[in-house]
Every structure is written in structure tokens, then in C-alpha cells.
Amino acid sequence: MAEAEGLYPTLVANSVLNAFLSYTATVLNIITIQALKKASSLARPLKTLLLSLAASDLGVGCLVQPIYIAVLVTLITEPNTGSGSHVISSLIIAFVAISNLLGSVSFFGVFALTVDRFLAIHLHLRYQALVTHKRVVAVVTLIWVFSAAYFFLFFISINVRVIFSATTGALSFATTGLLYCKIYAAVRQHRNQINALQVQQVVQNGDMANAARQRKTAVATFYVYIVFLVCYLPFWFVFPGIILYYESVLWKHLLCYSLTLAFLNSSLNPLIYCCKMRRVRRAVMDILRNNAFSTSYRMAGTGDFYSTLVANCFFNAFLLFTALVLNIITIQALRKISSFPKPLKTLLLSLAVSDLGVGLLVHPVYILLLVMNIEQNTNNRIFIMVYKAYLISSHLLCTASFLSIIALTVDRFLAIHLHLRYQEFVTHKRVVAVVISVWVWCSCISLFVLNSVLENVLAIITVTIGTVCLTTTGFIYCKIYSIVRHHKNQIHALQLQPVG
């Protein structure tokens, strides 16, 4: 039990930390992926490996950390269920599956980067002939396929998985360390040779510049390796301990923090690329300053629209995670509250589910639309598909939220106005029927949006219904205020009467 074992502060602290790190990992890796695509001077094999690593880090921020937060929040709100609950078991399986996939991709991606830099320095001119773009793409594809297959070891045997992971990890780290020692020796030898040639004034500037570039990229990938080592080694030490001493509270504390430290790696990698790779840093600065895109592109004719798009991308990325975390907590809390009337709980759950859907679907699709507008990719089929998905999801979920608020208002009015007759009139089955009707109606509206013929008619109907609903809601709340004030005066008058 989380509270009895003193895990509550740890669970809360890690939920907050991962909510922040999820946001930074998502935003920084989106910028990094865009920068890598723009950095044309970067070697294609190196760019492919960095894109694969950035994509896995983006997956950690978008998928792994939100699921990890959901697991932590479920343990906070349902401390007595442990891992026996169906919900927590499903979340843990999803978490283990996706984290194993993306963690393995990151691990082997770092190893592949090390091998690539070793070959670039060791082979010199033969590097381009041996390390081609197609071969690197094949290696990256193999890494993703192998990482996906690695998850099935979890179902075969936990002992086999631990032994396989320990053996593979030890060999990879030993090989990586040896390769970096060889890289250091080769770089030092090249530097001494260049210094000697500079004295003799024989070396060409192109050779010196190429050697300097290879040396800098090798140093950058070494920082990636060191940071990966620092972030993941604590978890690899804690993992065997939690298997052997599962009931130990100390190991559970260490497991929570070691996982958070491992996920921190996904936020640090983009910073390393930006700080240690000048071409990536320049591409990032171009993106942030709007130099990478055509300055003639302006929507609505406003010169500052680019900054508006970028600001809304960041703002919606933040709101996405707050909507996810807060509504998951709300849904779990509503399920735990037994004193709430079932009709009211049903309406609140419907509203929370629609708001959670906004965080899961509407915000990400809207961010993708903004990014495509920034990149000027608005004249292709993908943009049209994304725009249609945005229209459907936003009309479905936002309309469901709006109508749920209307239903909540009517429910509270009936509860105050009908008194004892409320339970007889507003039954749970009737409320469930109303909620289902709301969602069916919203689904129909969302599908009608795609019909260009009905678009204007639908807009008129939506404005009319919205105006009527808002007016009715305002009127109902005035009635509720009047009734509540009348009841309060009656209670106050009865309290003042002497007891006869």
C-alpha cells in the first residue's frame, strides 16, 4: 500500500517531475528533429542515426512518460489495489512494452553512433565507401525490429530477460568504452600529424577542416554516451534489486527515481546536439529565428503570425500534458468517491472523459497542424488528412464537453428545485441515456463537418443551439441562485426561532 509504506511523497514527486520532463522531451526533440532535417551539411549516415535517437527520445516524452505518470497517479489514488487491479495491470504492461522498445532503440542507437564515429575517424576516405546511407538505414531498421522483438522476452521468462539484458549491456558498454579509447588515440595521433604538417606547411586546409569536424562530432557523441551512461546505470543496478527484494520499500523508492533519471536522458540529448554540434545549433537557431522558412509566408497577412504559431505550439504542448494528468487524476478520484449521487458522478465522468480526449487527440493534432503551417506543408494530402482529423476530433470532444456542462447545470437545477422528488425523477439509467445521446449527437455533428454542402447549415445550427444553450444555462443559474438564497433565508429564520 503506497500510503502505508511511505511511498506517497515519492509517487507525487515523480509524477510532477515526469510531467515537466515529458513536456521538455517532447518540445526539445521536435525542434531537434526539425533542425536535423534542415542541417544539410551533416553527413547522411550520422544524420540518420541522430534522427533515430531523437525519434526514440520523442517517443519517451510522448508515450512512455505519460503512461508512467498514469501508473503513478493510479497508485496514489488507489493505494490498496497494488498491481492486482485490472487498470494498473494494463497500464504496467503498456508501460513495460513501450519503454522496453524505446529504451532499447536509444541504447543501440548510442552504440551505433559510437561505431559510426569510430569508422569515420579510423577509415578516413574509405568511410564514405563503406558506410553508405542505405546500410545505415538498414541498421536503424534492424535496431527498431530487434527492440520490438526484445519485449517478448518479458513474457518468456524474467530470468532469461535479465541474463540477456545484462550480457548484451555489458558487452555493448565494454565495446563502446574500447571504441572511444581507440577514437581518443586516433584523434590524438591525427592532431600530432596535423601539427607537424602545419609546421612544414604541406597540409591542405580542407583536410584540416575535415579532421576537425570528425573530431568534434566524435566528442559530441562521446557526451551522448556519457550522459546515457549516467542516466541509465542507476536503473540497471536497481532493476535486479527490485526483483530480488520486491517487498522492500527502499528499493521501490529507488526504482521510481531511477526510472525518472533514465527518462531525463531524453530531455538532455537535444541539448547535447545543440551545444556540441555547431551545424545542428545553427539549424536550431534558424528555426527559432524564422530564417529557415520563407519570410514571405504569412497567413492572414500579419507579419507576426510565425511567432503566434510557435507560441501556440509550446502553449498547447504544455496544456496537452496538464489536460492528461489532471483529468486522469479526476477520473480516478470520481471513481473512488462513493458519497456522490450516481447521476452527478456519471455526468462528471462524461465531462472528464471528453476533456481527457481533448488532451489525447485534439491538442496533438492541433500542434501538428501548427507545425505543418510553420513548415508551409499545407498543400499536400497529409495536411488535408490532419485537418480533417482535427475537425472531427475537436467537434466531437469539444461539443461533448459543452453539452455535458449543460446537462450538469440542468441536473443541479433539478436537484435543488425538486428536493425529494429528484431521486425519483433523475435516475441513473436516465442519466446514462442522456450521456449516450450526447455522445451520439456529437458524433453525428463531427461527421457532418466533412460535408461541404452542409457546412454553412451546420454553422448556423451550431450558433443557434449554442446561443440558446448558453442563454438557458444563464437563466437556470439565476434560478438556482434565487432558490439557494431563499433556502438559506428559511434556514436562518428557523435557527432564530426559539425552541418551544
Automatic annotation (TrEMBL):
Membrane-spanning ranges: 16-36, 48-76, 88-115, 136-156, 162-181, 222-246, 309-334, 346-369, 389-410, 431-451, 457-478
Keywords for this protein: Cell membrane, G-protein coupled receptor, Membrane, Receptor, Transducer, Transmembrane, Transmembrane helix
Subcellular location as annotated: Cell membrane
Topology within the bilayer: Multi-pass membrane protein
Glycoprotein among keywords: no
UniProt xrefs under Gene3D superfamilies: Rhodopsin 7-helix transmembrane proteins (1.20.1070.10)
Keyword Signal belongs to the record: no
Domain (G-protein coupled receptors family 1 profile) ranges: 28-273, 326-500
CDD domains: 7tm_classA_rhodopsin-like
Entries under Pfam families matching the protein: 7tm_1
Family as reported in the entry's similarity comment: Belongs to the G-protein coupled receptor 1 family.
Protein name from the UniProt record: G-protein coupled receptors family 1 profile domain-containing protein
Organism: Porites lobata
